[in-house]
Amino acid sequence: MKTLEDLKRLREQLKTKNTVRHEGGIQIIVGMGTCGIAAGARQVMTAILDEIAKQNLQTVKISQTGCIGMCEKEVLVDVVRPNEPRITYGRVTVDDIPKIISEHIVNGRIVAELAIGKFTE
Amino acid sequence: MRELSLHILDLVQNSLEAGANIVKLEVIEDLSADVLVIRVADNGRGMDEKLRQLVIDPFVTTRLTRRVGLGLPLMEMSTKRCDGYLKIQSTPGQGTIIEASYRHHHLDRPPLGNIVETIKTILVANPTLNFLYRHTVNDRKFTVSSQELADILDGVPLTQPDILIWLHKYLSDHIANLYGGVEK
Ligand code: FES
User: Fold this and answer.
1) Could you list the pLDDT tens digit for every one of the 121 residues in chain A?
2) Which regions span the lipid bilayer (chain A) (predicted)?
3) Homologous superfamily of A23-119 in CATH?
4) DSSP 3-state helix, strand, coil percentages of chain B (rounded to 5)?
5) Domain segments of chain B as ranges
6) Mutant choice from B4, B159, B173 vs A, greatest count of A C-beta within 10 A
7) Fewest CB atoms within 10 Å of the CB: A15, A71, B37, B174?
8) Architecture of domain B4-178 in CATH?
9) Is the dihedral of CA B26, B27, B30, B36 positive or negative?
10) Omega of the bond prior to A75 within 30 degrees of 0, cis?
11) How far is A52 from chain B (nearest CA, A)?
């Protein structure tokens, strides 16, 4: 069974390998309003976390947000790359996640057919 | 929503929207008393009596009430169907405690569902939230504190891939253990 001791050891390993970078990351935001959750936001979140672990992506930040007021387009996932406009993906399913991660997160190419909005902040 | 763990995620999101930075989640399963209780306590802005009454009314659909939680009326209905209740205790400026109770063995009781994914989501997607999760099944208990994890991690984010894998295994193991079923 995994323990907090294992976590301590893992933290030490990571620190000595010095692979952990904190800044300059890409941000992924998942809408977790009631409609979002009902439409499968948690499963989408799980798929994102699995993909991050699988592709060993070190600098992605994850957050959740509430209702964005677009029920019919849930599940909504926003991707923000440093110094680029914020992209909103709509009606995202678990199956879309590997594509969004490989294309947009890793290679910086927006997945146009899933994007529903672009916001410059 | 078919899973209680999705309702739990919804309740925590309500707390976040109420500006809470401390959320305590308790899941109590007592099979001899035949009850399952979910309690979420936060330090958000709270609600006055009028709003408190409104949020469980499924027919009120103003923007304002929708923001505080479309999910609550649904949850109340599911508790009522299972010989239970939904209680909202709230003090403006101090926080809210929501308690949902079900008869554990009621045929219509929604399953707890994937509580691991719910807890993982809350922890990973809210790095500055002080989150405490305590789950008891009869006399077995499991507690997770985001504060304790952060202290051990000492600046390493939970989203670090190896840490994510650890977290998943840690939560799965210990939650399975509550029900008596984990290989060592
Ligand atoms: S919860 Fe319905 S639009 Fe966001």
Assistant:
1) 899 999 999 999 998 876 656 556 899 999 999 889 999 999 999 999 999 999 999 889 999 998 777 778 999 999 999 989 999 999 999 999 999 999 999 999 999 999 998 776 5
2) none
3) Glutaredoxin (3.40.30.10)
4) 40, 25, 35
5) 4-178
6) B159
7) A15
8) 2-Layer Sandwich (3.30)
9) positive
10) yes
11) 6
